[in-house]
Design goal:
- The complex is a heterodimer of chains A (about 250) and B (about 400).
- Chain A has about 250 residues and is an alpha/beta fold.
- Chain A has a single domain (about 5-235), classed as P-loop containing nucleotide triphosphate hydrolases (Rossmann fold, 3-Layer(aba) Sandwich), CATH 3.40.50.300.
- Helices cover about 35% and strands about 25% of the residues of chain A.
- Chain A has helices at about 45-55, 75-85, 100-110, 115-130, 145-160, 175-190, 205, 230-235, 240-245, and strands at about 5-15, 20-30, 35-40, 60-65, 70, 85-90, 165-170, 195-200, 210-215, 220-225.
- In chain A, the strands form two sheets. Chain A has a six-stranded mixed sheet. Chain A has a four-stranded antiparallel sheet with strand order 2-1-4-5, with helices on one face.
- Chain A is globular and about 50 Å long.
- Chain B has about 400 residues and is an alpha+beta fold.
- In chain B, strands 2-3-8-5-7-6 form a six-stranded mixed β-barrel.
- The chains are: A alpha/beta (about 250), B alpha+beta (about 400).
- The interface of A and B includes residues 83, 97 and 113 of A.
- Bound molecules: adenosine-5'-diphosphate and magnesium ion (MG).
Chain lengths: ~250, ~400
């Protein structure tokens, strides 16, 4: 069964007398364990599509099943509960809480899932370890590099054992080497069975995904599968010096 | 969840220490002002209430002597115009009257052993104690037989007893008033200062008849004349009506023509004090109201800072929503933050208010009364302000659109 299934998904924005058709009937199905890159020029509807997939917004038309559940007509608070249980977000700007330790940042989604503080701590530590930052749990975001901050954000996205990770330009603020490191991490998680949908406008980044969805004018134009590059291999050919810049 | 919200609130308050302190200052000053002002008002009220208590309730006093045309009263007893018969007539003919007790007063030197003390001597009848709400603490009051038989018995006020006997038991002892020996039969309970500042416990009560014969002397004009009549009106009766009836009766008995002034002086003191009590209550409310304004201003300060905080933390709110916070989680978080601000400010304000109230009573020598109810009220008021002024910013936060909030720069 598909983790994500949309049927003629549409989204209109009303700006005074004008209506912007941001998304015009997108039907797509994503199976468990896929690593999907969403591409397209600016204004083509990528973010709108991701916001709908992430249950941050409701579609104007069409249907959407997330992990078998019809979520297109849920209320605001029901959507919040779905996000909490099924979705992990990774943002371009990391969006970590300032003056808050890495561990507490990772625990944040569990806070709204009514998980006991002991279990929160335990799961938070495990995810930090999974992204290789076990020794940074008490660091605040300002004491971490960009790549480390994005790893904390990925740990936070993982902490709820979500059905899918949605990442909107996760490498947009990182240098090349750090970007590939983050992709290596995502590929590793994907190989362990995690479903990932990633938005990017860089073809270099999209090459690490196994499937590419290309949007144009709110429509899905291309949907093709390709053998992905291996980020770990790619790292070997990248110059070491970049490490210092990160 | 609430505990969690409290922890988040405390953290965010800690991040901006100076701002938090300044915001709390408004509530602190407001709460302190309410507590200090109410304690001043309550102090004034307590003073008046005490005076009413010491005066005796529902008391009307008739003094002999006239208030002449110019409104200047000649000294008390300068004309002995009222009599024991007036007192019995008032008790008999005015139904509103519970009891009317005639008495006469003078000063005399009192000797016990080698101690002597100059004090007020009050000749009274058995009704006097009821009329003045003045119970006997030890021993017995003046009885009808004492008045009939002009016995030489005396009751001491607390001040007099202290000056003549110290801590010793005065009952049964012999004292000399103007060289006449009297047996002390009772000790009066403490009455305290009168509203005009006189020590009412510096007194000796003896039977009226004995007083006239042996101590104060008898008026040549009328052997039945007395200095004053203390009249107790029945509970819940109209004091003004009683006053009118008593005045009419006395004028009739004294055969005064309509154009003539009263040849007696009639005072309803409890009415005066009740008016004072009313006005001190009004003053308390007024002070509390003025102080509340500063509390209100403090609340507006909280709202202001919370609105700034919501704007500053828009991205944080968006993130919390994205990872699963429902509207009410966000609402709770910001509401708890506002209430925490106001409650911490409130607690410090209570301490300041108590200190301020003590300072006022020490420096200005005003009586202040710290009512626990006022403290609880001020604290509750601070909490209510936090909820009231925190609600709008919190609701604003909870209604943010997660997508826009996440994108907010
Ligand atoms: N909140 C909004 N209100 C109005 N129009 C919007 C809004 N969000 C997006 N749009 C419009 O919808 C279209 C698609 O936008 P978006 O999904 O952000 O594209 P992309 O992420 O591919 O750059 C654009 O024309 C954009 O201007
Ligand atoms: Mg976009």
């Amino acid at each position: 069964m598909a983790i994500i299934a949309t049927e003629e998904l549409g989204k209109d924005y009303h700006l005074g007398p004008h209506t912007v058709h941001a998304l015009r009937g997108v039907s797509v199905s994503i199976e468990p364990g896929e690593f999907v890159a969403v591409m397209g020029p600016s204004g083509s509807g990528k973010s709108t599509f991701m916001n709908l997939l992430g249950c941050l917004d409701r579609p104007s038309a069409g249907r959407y099943w997330l992990d078998g559940q019809d979520v297109a007509r849920l209320s605001r608070d029901q959507l919040a509960t779905v996000r909490n249980a099924k979705i992990g977000f990774v943002f371009q700007m990391f969006n970590l809480l300032p003056r808050t330790s890495a561990l507490e940042n990772v625990e944040l989604p569990l806070l709204y899932g009514g998980i006991s503080s002991r279990e929160r701590r335990q799961r938070g530590r495990a995810r930090l370890q999974a992204v290789g930052l076990a020794d940074r749990e008490h660091h605040h975001p300002s004491q971490l590099s960009g790549g480390q901050q994005q790893r904390v954000a990925i740990a936070r996205a993982l902490v709820n054992d979500p059905a899918v990770i949605l990442a909107d330009e996760p490498t947009g603020n990182l240098d090349t080497r750090t970007s590939v490191e983050i992709l290596a991490l995502l590929q590793r998680l994907n190989r362990q069975g995690l479903t990932i949908v990633l938005v990017t406008h860089e073809p270099d980044i999209a090459n690490y995904a196994s499937r590419r969805l290309v949007f144009r004018d709110g429509r899905l134009r291309t949907d093709d599968h390709a053998e992905p590059l291996d980020a770990v291999e790619a790292l070997k050919s990248l110059p070491e010096e970049d490490e210092a810049v990160a | 969840m609430l505990l969690q919200a409290l922890r988040i609130a405390l953290r965010s308050l800690k991040v901006n220490k100076l701002r938090t302190a300044l915001t709390m200052l408004g509530i602190m000053i407001g709460v302190a002002a309410v507590i200090a002002m109410v304690s001043v008002g309550a102090g004034a009220q307590a003073r008046v209430a005490e005076q009413i208590q010491s005066l005796g309730s529902n008391l009307i006093i008739v003094l002999s002597g006239s208030s002449n045309a110019a409104g200047v009263r000649l000294g008390q007893g300068s004309q002995t115009t009222i009599t024991e018969d007036d007192a019995s007539a008032i008790a008999r003919e005015v139904p509103l009257v519970q009891v009317a007790a005639p008495s006469s007063r003078g000063n005399a030197q009192v000797v016990y052993g080698n101690l002597n003390w100059s004090t007020g001597i009050q000749g009274v009848t058995a009704d006097y104690f009821e009329a003045r709400d003045w119970p006997v603490e030890v021993g017995r009051p003046v009885l009808q037989e004492d008045v009939d038989g002009a016995t030489k018995v005396a009751l001491l006020g607390q001040t007099t007893a202290l000056n003549l006997f110290g801590d010793a038991d005065p009952i049964g002892q012999i004292i000399r008033i103007k060289k006449v020996p009297f047996t002390v039969v009772g000790l009066l309970s403490r009455k305290g200062q009168s509203s005009w500042g006189q020590d009412q416990d510096d007194v000796i009560l003896i039977p009226l008849s004995t007083a006239k014969k042996k101590v104060l002397g008898v008026s040549q004009a009328n052997a039945r004349s007395v200095g004053s009549i203390s009249i107790k009106i029945r509970p819940d009766e109209d004091m003004a009506e009683a006053e009118t009836q008593i005045r009419a009766l006395l004028r009739q008995r004294h055969r005064l023509q309509p154009y003539q002034d009263d040849d007696f002086w009639l005072r309803n003191l409890s009415e005066v004090l009740q008016t004072q009590e009313e006005s001190s209550k009004v003053m308390t409310y007024l002070l509390a109201a003025i102080a509340s304004v500063s509390l209100l201003v403090g609340g507006i300060g909280i709202m202001n800072i919370m609105l700034v905080s919501v704007t500053e933390r828009t991205r944080e709110i968006g993130l919390r929503m994205a990872v699963g916070a429902r509207s009410r989680d966000i609402l709770t978080q910001f509401l708890v933050e506002a209430v925490t601000l106001s409650l911490i400010g409130g607690v410090i304000g209570i301490a300041l208010g108590i200190g301020g109230s003590n300072a006022i009573s020490a420096l200005a020598e005003w009586r202040t009364v710290l009512a626990p109810s006022a403290i609880v009220l001020a604290f509750g008021f601070a909490a209510a302000i936090g909820i009231f002024f925190g609600f709008y910013p919190a609701r604003k936060a909870s209604r943010l659109d997660p997508i826009e909030a996440l994108r907010y720069e």
